[in-house]
Amino acid sequence: MRLTIRTNLAMRTLMYCAANPDQIVQKRDVALACGASENHLAQVIHLLARNGFLTTLRGRSGGLRLARAPQDITVGQVFRIFESVLPFTDCAEASSTCPLAAACRLKCVLAEAVEGFYARLDQSRLSDLVSDNAALHRLLSAA
In this model, does residue 56 exceed pLDDT 90? Predict the structure, then answer.
């Protein structure tokens, strides 16, 4: 299993904002700290804002900041938004072309494993990733 770049960027962006509380951060600074292009990051920021994780402000002094407290954001919530659009396996889809789909028990095992994965991510909050993490704060401090 491998995370998409968008999910990875979403978590990095949220960690950047959480490491710089009470600040409006610039997209270019997030992109630089996260090793991402501003264009790719813009798509991620848009989706995070649309789902209520970020507040974006337009204009010369605009930027972004967390829309919720870090303890109110679970990793599972973010992953579901970015990862759930891609099925883990094609047998989970109604349009599966697998000849074993009607009798295969593997899809049940995989579905349970994915639910276990998300259940664990639901236990982790953004605050858990950022609080008392001086090394991360040094890496993500806004100038």
Answer: yes
- Domain limits, the chain: 5-140
Q: What is the pLDDT of residues 63-105, one digit of tens each?
A: 999 999 999 999 999 999 998 766 666 665 666 777 877 788 8
CB 64 within 8 Å of CB 31 = no
Q: In 1-143, which ranges are E strands?
A: 54-57, 63-66
Could you tell me the two tokens for 2? 């491998």
pTM of this structure:
0.86
The answer to whether 9 and 41 are in contact (CB under 8 A) is yes
Between 140 and 90, the more confident residue is: 140
- Alpha-carbon distance of 76 to 49, in angstroms, equals 17
Is 3.40.50.1000 the CATH number for 5-140?
no
Spatial neighbors of 66 by CB under 8 A, at least 6 apart, are: 14, 17, 18, 21, 53, 54, 55, 73
- The partner residues of 63 in beta bridges, in order of sequence, read 57
